[in-house]
Amino acid sequence: MVIGGGPAGSIAALHLAQGGMRPLLIEREREGHDPVCGGFVSADALGLLARSGIDSANLQGHPIERMRFFVQGRMLEAALPFPAIGLSRRRLDTVLVDAARRAGADVEFGRIARTLSDDRTVSLADGGMLAADAIILATGKLNLRGVDRPGQSAQGDAKIGLRRALRPDRACTAALNGTIELHLLAGGYAGLVLQEDGLLNLCLSISAARLREAEGSADRLLVMICEEAPSLGERVAAATPVGAWRSIARIPYGWRATETLPGLFRVGDQAAVIASLAGDGIAIAIASATAAARALLRGGPAAAPAFQRDFARAARWPLVCGEALRHVAETPGWARPVARFVAMKPAMLAWGARATRIAQAA
């Protein structure tokens, strides 16, 4: 059984079906949607998708060739060291779920898993019970009762993730064409990238304290940070909100699963959570899911602990680099001098992007 129909869950189900199994994938949402995380798909992720039989041309993503940072009024810009695309999660997830279904996986939407017991029995919100020999846990940053992340400590600087789609005007679209843009803030950052549907994906990773300052209002928070970052304010003012905010609390950046029980394979954000700033979350999802499916096909449920240790080892350095970059970006005292240094050596941006890649783990 695969719990979760995002990139990690869909890729795991796809590989299991291609390997001769008939996995059951259950997804809590009833239809495609755009969660908080995602929107940027790197070359590593595209390469892993191609190895899974997914043609990147079918994704129809918005090509991204450059990255642009705004730090304390200073703009830094450099070419990405690899090609990438801006892509809505709605589009990506739909393509991957359809591929898994065509390969032979059973897919059920609107099935909400509540708890998972030691004997791998899943209790559902509708009162149903499902049991499996092996579980691929692909619930993203959301924990499932009974299998909370082992070793996850309380986050003293807990982060909140917020996302909203915007419809940019022509000038804003032209300014962001081919570029991913990051605006560094005290206690977090905002990311902007155009998607295949022409909408602008606005994601915020911000400290819980800053949201409390805004009295829990995402709209008020956006006003506050746009005053702090006028460059971001210009982008937001040139776009119209589409739909509601989506949010997720207590993001455990830097966490990775170093152990698990036989029969329980943690993939995606249940395997490793890299800072959003690194832009490698989708690649981690696909790499971990691919490795988990291969381990299960080769060694059965008993292969889970070895898979988890191996993937944790492969993810260690990218996560360390991602956390270092995140802490620098969120600390004005560090961000200013580092920005001055990087302005003299733009190649450092490319180095930081490469240091957080994890594709080799698959």
In short:
The protein has helices at residues 7-18, 43-51, 56-59, 89-103, 170-176, 208-213, 218-228, 230-237, 281-299, 304-330, 332-344, 347-355, and strands at residues 2-3, 24-27, 40-42, 62-71, 74-86, 106-109, 113-116, 121-124, 129-131, 135-137, 159-168, 179-185, 188-194, 200-207, 239-251, 264-266. With 362 residues, the chain is α/β, with parallel strands linked by helices. The protein has a domain at 2-64 and 86-153 and 253-327: FAD/NAD(P)-binding domain, CATH 3.50.50.60.
Describe this structure as you would to a colleague.
By secondary structure, the protein is of the alpha/beta class. It has a domain at 2-64 and 86-153 and 253-327: FAD/NAD(P)-binding domain (3-Layer(bba) Sandwich), CATH 3.50.50. Helices cover 39% and strands 27% of the residues. It has 12 helices and 16 strands. It has helices spanning 7-18, 43-51, 56-59, 89-103, 170-176, 208-213, 218-228, 230-237, 281-299, 304-330, 332-344, 347-355, and strands spanning 2-3, 24-27, 40-42, 62-71, 74-86, 106-109, 113-116, 121-124, 129-131, 135-137, 159-168, 179-185, 188-194, 200-207, 239-251, 264-266. The strands form 3 sheets. The chain has an 8-stranded mixed sheet with strand order 3-5-4-12-13-14-11-15. The chain has a 5-stranded parallel sheet with strand order 6-2-1-10-16. Helix 1 packs parallel to helix 4 (89-103) and helix 2 packs parallel to helix 9 (281-299). The chain is globular, with a radius of gyration of 20 Å.
